[in-house]
Fold:
Amino acid sequence: MIGYGAMGQSLRASLAKSGDGLTIAAALLPTLSSCDAASRDSVRVFHDIDDLVAWRPSLVVECAGHAAVRDIVPPLLRAGIDVVIVSIGSLSDAGLIDELEAAALAGGSHLIVASGAIGGLDALRAAKRAGLTSVVYLGCKPPAAWQGSAAESLCDLPQITSRTVFFEGNAEEAARRFPKNANVTAAVALAGLGFDQTKVVLAADPAITCNSHNVTATGAFGEFSIALHNNPLPDNPKTSLLAAMSVEASIVRHFAPLAL
Structure:
């Protein structure tokens, strides 16, 4: 893994229980101070990307933010190592997408985008082929889940008493301004109309305890709406438990003889 925070630790524990024979064996970490959790779990630690490449991992999972996708993932792809990325919001940068594609082609590798906390992306991709006219994403989380994000400057999170919309814009702006909280908007944009044409509404609601995601799409195919109400990851309320499970599913499918 690139990074070994709450999601990485949850993922390793879940893989150990699954019986699939897969494990997180190593982590690429930037500093010695971030090694405690990995050392506790007997995960080998690398600090240099060249050392990780020489170790030849079967698969690398990025779980460390936009900078990791930009700086670390391309060299791995060029070295012929497949990578799953979690920080989907980084792909709002069209130049980065081009760089990742070129790196994967050069190395004969694959970049896999985890679906994250949202479902129904297969239907959205299919609808896109028929012609989409509108895709709207509404994300609503408890105030605590938005702490440490740009939402703090847009509303008084501790004081709100009812559902409060603090952002309306497109997926490009949402992914850029809320990189740790709104990766799901990027997943919706990539599957559908793109970052500029996907409308995004973000809200905080003190009356809920889960993370709510709603997608409505219309087009030549007709119309569909998808709603998910996800429990947060216990050690990180900014992330849905389903997001961690989507990464696990991506790993299992990667190694399965039949990707059902």
